[in-house]
Amino acid sequence: MTPTASAPTAPLNAPPVPLRANLRRRRLRHLLTLAALTCVLVVLVVVSAGTGMVFVPPETTARVVADKLLPGLVEPTWTAVEAQIVWEYRLPRTLLAAIVGAGLALVGTTLQAVVRNPLADPWVLGVSSGAGLGAVASLVVAGSWFAVVPLPVAAFLGATCATALLFGLARRQGRLTPLRLVLSGVALSYLFSAATNYLVLTTDAERVFGVLFFLLGSVASAGWNDLAVSLVVVLAGLVHLTARVRALNALLAGDEAATSLGIHLDRLRGELLLLTSLMTGVMVAVSGGIGFVGLVIPHLSRLFVGADHRRLIPVAALVGAIFLVLVDLVARTVAAPVELPIGVVTAAIGAPFFLWLMRRRNAERRGGLSR
Asked: What is the pTM of this model?
């Protein structure tokens, strides 16, 4: 009797064929989304670097950048003034806006997962206010030991102190609760803002305008030297958060579910809050107080890719970069020759969005859909 040939069998733990095909389609769609957002960001950076009081066409802007990166690649057809405007003044501030937007979006996405509250962002939790207080203290307290502290270090110290206070106030019976985190953060935000206002009002009159402009957010003074530290911090934060996406997803499922998966909640929340305080401190140091980016961008990104942090983290970083490049372009062109602080434009967008979000949450509660 001839033995019958048996068909090859799949491993027991392998997903069914339709499920694997669906996973491949979702991965392909995610890669296409990232590629499309990257293309949009590159185009916006070129357009923004060429737009201003002296307009440089996008093609010329792209050729200037290509010549600086790869000398001799293209034949020079631009003037020296155009090259100086694009390379020395506009491109650094545009790239800094992209980096800060990506960083604040990552911070907001992380905080909303840590406290399990869609209204959370660095400003709501008081981390940005603490960083702002440290930065302003470094700017206005002349003649004391604190005046020699570099601005990024002062902002990081302020953000870290705010995070430590937030930890202490939010703990109850040895555990961190999301509701107490948010309420403690709001109270700390008001406290740090009051201390910052006191420093501003008691400083020399000639410093007041500069400090206020810093507090409202700006990347106008950005230079190439300002990009390195902020870029390294954002990339390091992106890599770390990418490695922790499973833990972030577990936090969304609830404390009990995360604990059952072997996650030490207090340790994880402490680690992520320390990371966000570092990122917030650096972002505030290089760009001042820019609010609502960490609130708005995570929600916009979820509209594209859902709540899974494996896809949400990179998409939020790209959407945040695109958003702040656009905001910077609006801030320096809508009322030209006067330049608006970036924080004014983000507040004009973020405040209505915040109110819409609260109304949506209330509607969900009435419908029994809220957690």
From this structure: 0.84
